[in-house]
Amino acid sequence: MPGLEDLYREIILDHYRSPRNRGELASPPATRTEGFNPLCGDEIVVYLDIDDAGTVGDIRIGGTGCSISQSSASMMSAAVRGKTIIEVKALTRAFKGMMSLHETTLDAEATLDAEAAEAEAQADAGVKLGDLEALRGVVKFPVRIKCATLAWNTLLQGVDEAVTAR
Q1: Does the bond joining 19 to the residue before it have cis omega, within 30 degrees of 0?
Q2: Which CATH number goes with the domain that contains 26?
Q3: How does pLDDT run across 61-93, given as a tens digit for each residue?
């Protein structure tokens, strides 16, 4: 389906050339988290402002790297703004699931109690990836999966740090 592949390529290039939410937030109150891929040198910085209700009020991204890592970070930042922490984690699980990574590596899900596991299952049921689907083809190149997931791993680290700091 060359038409769909061309569309996906254009979405990736658009986010790479014109990244969304590029910049910094004052830290504190925002949480600043850095991610690094030693295999290729990609660097991501995620600035995350989570409000008292547990919603991503603002997010900014920075860093340097390949088109896959930078466009994934841009798409991620657009996708999580305004989402609750539970929704962010559900979206992350869905994205990393699309990248063929085991969901249990995301965070300590094995230690979740039944109520938390049920809440996550409900959140996962309605996840729509939208433009993130454009990165589906990355799984054909296993070495690039780390590029696509770098921002997401950094985001989860930032969420955990923000929750701990509250």
Answers
A1: no
A2: 3.90.1010.10
A3: 999 999 999 999 999 999 999 999 999 999 999
